[in-house]
Amino acid sequence: QLKKEWNSPIYAFYHPVPDIGYHEGRRYHEFKCAATRCKKGVHRFLDKKDAKSTSNMRKHAKICWGEETVKLADETKNSQEAHTIISGAKDSSITASFERTGKGKVTYLHRQHTRTETKYSLMKTGRPEYYIPSPSTVSRDVKLVFARTRQRIAKMLQEHDGQLSFATDAWTSPNHKAFIAVSVHLEHDGEPLAMILDIVEVSESHSGVNLATAF
User: Fold this and answer.
1) Cα–Cα distance between 102 and 159 in angstroms, integer?
2) Angstrom distance (rounded) from CA 30 to CA 196
3) Radius of gyration of the chain measured on its C-alpha atoms
4) Which of 6, 25, 62, 152 is the most exposed place for a label (fewest CB within 10 A)?
């Protein structure tokens, strides 16, 4: 009977059937968040005057799904329509799917987002299950991949039986800094292969002697 009254679009962000639990003799409904990576739920005690309130559910949905997605869901007719959009938008943006069903003029906010909004609201809008690594994790992984790749290339070139042809390309950037790029060209498994080995700054004249020294 209670489920018939759950028509608010906010219910679309939770599993349709809540768990029933008890705390100190008080019965409550626990609405589990529908986001894949989210394991949290929202408790709503049934012996309170605001037993039908969705304020806590709305707060959690904004944190997990993003304020923009919740706002667009509110523009739908009911929870069933909002749930249909969320379920059918796996291959495209959820916010875009909501916008296609909405009416009225599309407005834009030009205020610069804070760092928290950029990380958790914009990058995870409609896809709260996505994992966003920290800057230190990205930096560590990039350096690790670079070190391993350099070792693999060095080993491959040292063990290559054929000829290795090296080339250089020199240019000056728009801010008047001179660079040269060193590349290697070889035949690997019957296919031509070219790789950039390094890019270094050469502040001196690009003479043959200076290029050879930089090489």
Assistant:
1) 62
2) 57
3) 29
4) 25
Helical H segments across the chain, by residue range: 55-65, 67-74, 79-87, 94-101, 115-116, 135-158, 208-214
d(CA 138, CA 132): 10
CB atoms within 10 A of CB 87: 12
Query: For position 91, what pLDDT does the model report?
Result: 38
Mark 123-149 as b/e (b = at least 16 C-beta within 10 Å): ebbbbbeeeeeeeeeeeeeeeeeeeee
pTM over the 0.70 mark:
no
Contacts by residues 193-202 (CB-CB < 8 Å, ≥ 24 positions apart): 195/153, 197/153, 197/166, 201/177, 202/170, 202/178
**43 pairs with which residues across the strands?**
30
Nearest to residue 157, comparing CAs of 166, 145, 168, 170? Answer: 166
Q: How many CA atoms lie within 13 A of 7 on its CB side?
A: 5
Locate 144 and state its tokens.
């690790």
Count the residues in the chain.
215
What's the confidence (pLDDT) of residue 180? 87
Name the β-bridge partners of 28.
Answer: 21, 45
Are the CB atoms for 68 and 125 separated by under 8 Å? yes
pLDDT digits (tens, 9 = 90+) for 112-126: 666 666 655 666 666
Amino acid 40: pLDDT: 84
